[in-house]
Amino acid sequence: DTGVSQDPRHKITKRGQNVTFRCDPISEHNRLYWYRQTLGQGPEFLTYFQNEAQLEKSRLLSDRFSAERPKGSFSTLEIQRTEQGDSAMYLCASSELGREQYFGPGTRLTVT
Amino acid sequence: KQEVTQIPAALSVPEGENLVLNCSFTDSAIYNLQWFRQDPGKGLTSLLLIQSSQREQTSGRLNASLDKSSGRSTLYIAASQPGDSATYLCAVRPNTNAGKSTFGDGTTLTVKP
User: Fold this and answer.
1) A41 in contact with B at a CB cutoff of 8 Å?
2) In B37-73, which positions are buried (b, 16+ CB within 10 angstroms) versus exposed (e)?
3) Which residues of B touch A109 (CB under 8 A)?
4) Within an 8 Å CB–CB cutoff, is residue B10 touching chain A?
5) A25, A105, B22, B113: least surrounded by Cβ within 10 Å?
6) Phi, psi of A19 (to 5 degrees)
7) Residue B35 forms contact with A (CB below 8 Å)
């Protein structure tokens, strides 16, 4: 068990470009969560999966955002046509049903 | 809509002092509450999880309590050390055990040597 990993750790992109982030959860965890965090704020929920099913999406997740978890393993979060307001830390977490959430190190996105 | 508040936003104490961090939430229909610490620019590290049926949890120098009816949780840190300096966040999960957790904005703790 190596914990939750995220890739890349940092991403700088120009406005209008698409970006994709990857999260690898703890292997036996059936739940996977995505959050977004800006400076000085707590994480805001974006979406979560139970196995491969996406069960809830926040209204923060506009149509430019899409997340997948094929085969209930790793997950990807894609942002299309990035905007400066998308600059944030994107955090992934995983858990067993009803148990503690364990977070990855995050992906820092900067949109210039 | 669940709202989570952590007061104060920042706290500075001398090394060795015992301290309490506060977390309040507006909807008492929760499944569990989890405390985390976050170092600058890093992810969140889980400290303690309290299920809605529990009153407290302890881990080393940390003790977390939960009063669901009043919508409050506290994190007690005994004999604080400079290495405890970080931002402490609490998160509540609704009693549907849905995936969505609502976080407070955290308390930034500085322990001075």
Assistant:
1) yes
2) bbeeeebbebbbbbeeeeeebeeeebbbbbebeebeb
3) none
4) no
5) B113
6) -135, 150
7) no
